[in-house]
# Entry
Amino acid sequence: MSMEFSIPNKAKKVTLLLIIIGAVFTLLGIALNYESHHFVTRLLSSGLVNAFFFFALGLGALFFLALQYATETGWYASVKRVIESIAGFLPYGMGILGITLLIITLMDGAHIYGWMDPDVIDPTNHHYDELIAGKTWYLSKGFFWIRTIIYFTVYYLFLNGFKKRSLEEDRIGGTELHFKNYKRGAMFLVFFAVFSSTSSWDWIMSIDVHWFSTLFGWYTFAGMWCTAMVVIVLTVIYLKKLGYLERVNDSHIHDIGKWIFATSFLWSYLFFSQYMLIWYANIGEEVSYYMMRVENFQALYFTMFVVNFAFPMLILMSRDSKRNTGILSLIGVIILCGHWTDVYIMITGGSLGANAHIGFMEVGMAILMAGIFIRVVLNNLTKAPLMPVNHPFLDESLHHEI
Amino acid sequence: MAETIIYAMYDDDDILKDGAKKLVSKGVKITEVFSPFPVHGIDPIIGIKDTRLGIMAFLYGLTGTVLATVGMRYMMVVDWPMNIGGKPNFSYLENILAFIPVTFEFTVLCAAHGMAITYFLRNKTLPGMPAQNPDPRTTDDRFVMEIRTDENQKFSLKELETLVKETGIVEFDKKSRE
# Structure
């Protein structure tokens, strides 16, 4: 049985085309807006949106992998290599996100992270902001970078460990590695429970520096999880279409479809919980976040919510549609766009507000990143046999039937 | 003609499943299987159609959504506009956020109760209804397959008996009914 994957020429051409189109659009966007007043903020906001969105796809896959290990799940064993390959984008994602954050830091926040500007914490300056000055023990460049580096290091170490043990398991088998993965999976979830919240405060919530929400971390995490599941199912469908993963059956695809359905609900639930509580309480410093978004992005914001909530709910509700690869792919692509818009509004709503537009720059960077992402994931898929050999639950997975 | 019902008892669900496959491949129609727990994969073997409970659940849920919306609109907006927390209910749409949690709960309530009651009715297992299973041991550790002669006209009773007895049963029973 041939289990080695090699990137088809067509995929090589398409990803290269995506990268070229994306780069051309980005340059076009830069050329068209170079003179405009908010150019630097817009460029870096767009960079942050796309760096974070694609980084989150990898991180969501890593989280899902750890979750499967920690819960000793059986069914996923035959799609494990797909999850690992998507999680394998993480080092690239961290690199791009890290560079974006570094440029922003070197520019004293670039009007994205207002708290990085030394003027706002200088009592003699007329930009002095007492609220931000009171938060400097947490929101300072030094501590921000210590945290960012800790997140990246921990994610990288766990990813590496999982990947290494996965290949080792193929060679030597046995249950010792399995129980080690079980423990490491649980340990990762403990780190991730804290880091997923604090990192979303650091990288996204601190853009609206006066505002805070305890739900924000979960909200970001739910979007990350949902999009990662979509990418997993799209990759599995693509590989099956090429004739790989022949032992992966309808039931596996159905199960991933269920995860998309469930995580879409999780995300919608958290969106609503955060929105409704703030709307009901109607406290000035809390509603400012939503005032900004509803006033400046009204159509986009609510369309995004309806798309991300109603599409998966109504269309993926039935068993048949979760087993239909056409419907799954279509809904998957739609909600990927929906969640990209969500990240876009989260970030630019704070950094640019009324001056935010979606133009060549934003779309171009998204296409560019998509091209890089797909190419990296496909490349990761070539590095290991598509079907694990000695996973203790492999047999259960191959006979998965629901 | 009198109808005879054959009850074949098994002590293992896998043996029953294999037996059912063998019988069905020979053209025997199995009417029903009684078991203490759901036997995975038995439905397609004996030709039971997929449940439509999911469709009913959706309809019950929709009923709940509509009832909650109509009810709250009448009570909170039309009949006596309530002012809660400085948010007067002049229009339903403007304050829809406040009504969503109740709508959600009522939808779940209707869907869950509707499903449970439908399930009991359809299985004739509402509290107090007479038991349908042929042997009380099918609620403990035994599995019973039911075959009716009038659904298997092409076999004689004798032929059916021999076929069934070849499938690893632990007990055989038959009942005649006019």
Remarks:
- Residues 53-123 of chain B form one domain.
- Chain B has two domains: 3-47+141-177, 53-123.
- The mean pLDDT of chain B is 90.
- The first strand of chain B starts at residue 3 and ends at 10.
